[in-house]
Amino acid sequence: MPSTKSQGEKDKGNSAFKAGDFPTAIGHYSAAILLDPINPTYPLNRAAAYLKLGKSEDAERDCDRVLALDTKNVKAVFRRGQARVGLQKLAQARDEHAASSPPAAASAPENIPPPRTQTPPADAQTARTATSSQVLASQSNTHGARRRTPLTLFDFSREWEKCSTSEDRWALLKEVSPPTLPSLFQSSLEAQVLAGIVGTLRDVLRAGDLAPQERERVHDYMRGLTQVKRFSTVVLFMSNEERGWVNDVWGLLGGGEGARAWGVS
Question: What's the predicted TM-score (pTM) here?
């Protein structure tokens, strides 16, 4: 039963969150959302995990999603205010906090008790994605390890959020054939995942020294994403900065088939 499976994923996410493993928590919450997209608890919890990682853009999007499902969700309003502080949307953040009093344990996901000690909030700027040269130069514990090909979107979502560098994400993405992107995502592609893929491709291109077939593969991914259902709608939820990454990728590729679908002329 989908509700039982989604609850199980949420519980796993809560356990990971409590252990401080926020990327894994996000992966489980994402799986829960895919199983039950109308339950506001799952994106609410994922927003809390995104905030812990300093991913304010993604947290804001999840809070918007919660409020579309539950307009009176005070925790979502409060967390969106936190996200907007991280995004330097200070006027909007003040409005959010004026409209809601901080609920108890607002920074923790549903069904997890508040921690006994307070952890200083992460600096949003230092938590953002590093430059391509820094990202690809960093070593990962999983670098060089053979991954199991993610046959389902649940598998892909969990593994994607566990990846800490663009190098790891590129290695995972390469296990998905570009023509299979529409069947993998179907109608469940989310803006944060789309932006993450574009950011990864940009980092890979900026690192340079890509073999011609690898550059062509990047192009195939950009073109394949345009074939995913609801692509044109999902793109609208990308931020201006993220859309700038799209322009960067197509600029580094020198244009090509598929650029127009992204709004790049």
Answer: 0.72
